[in-house]
Design a protein that fits this description.
The chain has 2 domains: 219 residues, Spore Coat Polysaccharide Biosynthesis Protein SpsA, Chain A (Alpha-Beta Complex); 186 residues, UDP N-Acetylglucosamine Acyltransferase, domain 1 (3 Solenoid), CATH 2.160.10.10. It is built from 8 helices and 35 strands. It is α/β, with parallel strands linked by helices and 452 residues long. The structure holds uridine-diphosphate-N-acetylglucosamine and magnesium ion (MG). Magnesium ion binds next to loops.
């Protein structure tokens, strides 16, 4: 049986933020969200989260989740934080202690920490550090057994020279934790109840302390300020880029790729620099994404090309489409095979049929466009009368001349033609030509006004 205790009550003073620290994102997801997802992957029975600063906001964000919140009204140390959850600590469960501001620990690391524990030992995750300043130091005896953790502020100069640091992550049986927690004291430099003091208690009882050493520091890096947040963001994005390349994608520059969601990739996808992926995005075989694109909750089928500076959100894009540069594909856009959206085209709630082209400077909203339609430059669907939204229907094979306004609700019939510059307010029959503009006049020998 595995239970999790996440410590997330700290203030995060150095973030200088109105938002509780653990709600600050890494890779588009709150740090606490990463920790909870990791805990779920480990199949824990209970997720206990100790909250304090900004408790209401944290609770609000995860109120519908499988989380049990425990309030630590006053932050008297990491040991005190776990004490607040003591009522929930089951004697026969292994308790894994995690931190809401340490978001990127790998599942494998935690799993092997857990796997190394038997009924008479506890687990401790440590890290080898180039600069251990600020970390609790791991004290080992002649037989290399851990005997204690000494906090920076309580450490002697010799102890400060130790480069093995405490990550804070521990796995302890409930029966042991329930016995040790009441024994913690705040008799130390910070006048805090240190969770780390359980190590000396374990040692005194002759428990085996099974350590697992993390090699990549970032994996266990806690975020205290925005610089560390940015550092973790880069580390996370490097991992995302590695995963994309392992899946067979070409990233023209892995250091200029940002995935703040879940990306599903076909083979031979090519992504140019400075693209941002958010939410759930899937890219089919051979999809090419040009530079500076933002893709949000969008699926793009095989062979489609998205050119530079295009934004797609909540869109479903079919095979072999051609989009951008500079297209804005808004929620509810559905493109069929071979459709084209060119530069400065905006679509919203628009269904666009096979092979249809909307190539320049156009707004298509609340519309259904059939197959093989050509929408000329500067066409606007006038879908909004200031109060209501109305629908425009353009049937198969229609041709919309440039700079037309289609005042919805309106239907353009199959193979109908709309003359350039028309303002269409009534339905156009199949096969008809609709001309709706003042007839051109020519006034001979026209004298231009002169300056008075
Ligand atoms: C702690 C460890 C230290 C370790 C370091 C790793 C202790 C005594 N020290 O030190 O050995 O090297 O983490 O980063 O455990 N928290 C609460 N309530 C509290 C105090 C803390 O919820 O009353 C939470 C904080 O929100 C934070 C975490 O516990 O997420 C760590 O607290 P922090 O004050 O940063 O501990 P450190 O001094 O860094
Ligand atoms: Mg800290």
């Amino acid at each position: 049986m595995l239970d999790i205790v996440v410590l997330a009550a700290g203030k995060g003073t150095r973030m200088k933020s109105a938002l509780p620290k653990v709600l600050h994102p890494v890779g588009g997801k709150p740090m606490l969200g990463h920790v909870l997802d990791t805990a779920r992957t480990l199949n824990a029975d209970y997720l206990n989260v100790v909250i304090g600063h900004g408790a209401e906001l944290v609770e609000q964000q995860y109120q519908n989740d499988d989380v049990r919140f425990v309030l630590q009204a006053e932050q008297l140390g990491t040991g005190h934080a776990v004490q607040q959850a003591q009522q929930h600590l089951r004697n026969d469960a292994l308790n894994l202690i995690l931190y809401g501001d340490v978001p990127l620990i790998k599942i494998e690391t935690l799993q092997s920490l857990i796997d190394g524990i038997d009924s008479d030992s506890m687990g401790l995750l440590t890290v080898e550090l180039a600069n251990p300043t600020g970390y609790g130091r791991i004290i080992r005896d002649g037989a290399n057994q851990v005997t204690a953790i000494v906090e920076e502020k309580d450490a002697s100069p010799e102890q400060k020279a130790i480069t093995e640091g405490n990550t804070g992550v521990m796995a302890i049986w409930g029966k042991d934790l329930n016995r040790w927690l009441p024994q913690l004291s705040d008799n130390n430099a910070q006048k805090e109840y240190y969770l780390t003091d359980v190590i000396a208690l374990a040692q005194a009882e002759g428990k085996r302390i099974n350590t697992q050493v993390v090699l990549e520091e970032e994996e266990v890096l806690g975020v205290n300020d925005r610089r560390q947040q940015a550092q973790l963001e880069r580390y996370y994005q490097q991992r995302q880029a590695d995963m994309a390349m392992q899946d067979g994608a070409t990233l023209l520059d892995p250091s200029r790729f940002d995935c703040r969601g879940e990306l599903t990739l076909g083979q031979d996808v090519i992504i140019d620099v400075n693209c941002v992926i958010e939410g759930k995005v899937s890219l089919g075989d051979g999809v090419r994404i040009g530079p500076n694109c933002q893709l949000i909750n969008t699926s793009i089928a095989a062979g489609t090309v998205v050119k530079a500076n295009t934004v797609c959100e909540d869109a479903v894009i079919g095979e072999a489409c051609d989009i951008g540069p500079y297209a804005r594909v808004r929620p509810g856009t559905v493109l069929s095979k071979g459709a084209k959206l060119g530069n400065f085209v905006e679509t919203k709630k628009a269904i666009i049929g096979e092979g249809s082209k909307v190539n320049h400077l156009t707004y298509i909203g609340d519309s259904e466009i059939g197959d093989g339609v050509n929408v000329g430059a500067g066409t606007i669907t006038c879908n909004y009368d200031g109060v209501n939204k109305s629908k425009t229907t353009i049937k198969n094979g229609a041709f919309i001349g440039s700079n037309s306004s289609l005042v919805a609700p309106v239907t353009i019939g199959e193979n109908a033609t709309v003359a350039a510059g028309a303002t269409i307010t009534t339905d156009v029959e199949d096969g008809a030509l609709a001309v709706a503009r003042a007839k051109q006049r020519s006034i001979k020998s026209w004298k231009r006004p002169t300056k008075k």
